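Appendix C reproduces, verbatim, an entry submitted by the partner laboratory led by Prof. M.T., so that reviewers can inspect both the input and the predicted structure.
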Amino acid sequence: MVHVREMGAADIEAVSTIRVRGWQAAYAGVVPQTYLNAMTVEGDASQRRHWFSQPGRKTRDLVALGERGPVGWICFGPCRSEMSGLGRVGEVYALYISPDLIGRGIGRILLGEAHAQMKGQDFEASVLWVLGDNQRAQRFYERAGYHADGGAQDDIYDGITLTEFRYRRVW
């Protein structure tokens, strides 16, 4: 069983490990391997320390704690793009679980807590972005009440263009 709490500065290394290993597991065969191989926990932790120390940041970070410490992480906050006609919209920026624990409900618990906190901040809906070839994540978010809403954007990884699709859930 896990419990969720606010992420602290002491969690940065563990969260960076979860994120980097999560990328390397989830996106193998989707994102160029050269990009995945170049990811390091140290580099990610350095960036995360910088972001985490920003005064007035509007993002929230939660960790799921298991027997071995942090085993999952979610980051969310206000939507980064205009979503006209929906009122206040939140966004899930990232959700990663230790790859060896995927499928045990940890992601569902973290997402549920993020939804509860977004509702508590008077957000009326939530959006997130999923790589087009990440069918596992698409199924996960669809089971959580999200649906593709037609939004799309391209990202470039080591010269390869990959499309992300926007998913939305209205409370």
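Strands lie at 3-6, 60-66, 69-78, 89-97, 125-131, 147-157, 160-170. Additional entries are available on request from the coordinating office.
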